[in-house]
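Running this now, will post back.
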Amino acid sequence: FRTIASGYFIEERRFEPEVRETMLALVPITRALWQSVKGKLLPTPAKFHYIFNLRDLSRIWKGILKVTGEIINTKQLAVDLWYGEINRVISDRFTMHKDCEWLHSKCCEIITEKLDEEIGGAISPEYILRRLHA
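Update: finished.
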């Protein structure tokens, strides 16, 4: 996915340098998050649909790659897009609110640790929706 991201998020498509760097940094972050989800949220009789595979990574990046440089022009918006795709692909399967809360806290933790402390604290569904409708 790093090769795909580095080929898509280029200057010719009018992506800002900080967006290009952020998207490349999000590739290993997405993989690490996906591995955490696979390890923590295992299928059970009540959650038999909690099966996570490589298709999930493909779906996340497929959604991210639909964006243009005019829309995503800051690091914060790039992370917001990433967070939205994580929720669309992964948390839409969840049947328990505590699983959604766990995923959200894991996203914040991993972004804070590996990318940017300020942005890690600013990702939340409510905050993103407020910013989009402002």
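The CA atoms of residues 13 and 69 lie 6 Å apart. More later if anyone needs it.
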